[in-house]
Amino acid sequence: MNQLRRLRTLLLSLAIFAWVTGCRTTATDPDPVKQNSFLVGSTLKIQFTKDQLVSRLGAINPAYALFLQFGVKVHTITYKTQLPDGTEVTASGAILVPDSPNAMAMVSQQHGTITTDAEAPSNYGPGSDAYEVATVFASVGYIMVCPDYIGYGASKSVPHTYEHRQGLAQASLDMLRAAREFCKDNNVKWDDRLYLTGYSEGGYATMSLLKLMEEKYPTEFNLRAATAGAGAYNKTAFMKQIINEKTSGKSEYNRLYVWVLRTYNDLYKLARPMSYYFK
Question: Domains in the chain, ordered, with CATH?
Answer without folding.
Answer: 2-233 (3.40.50.1820), 234-279 (no CATH)
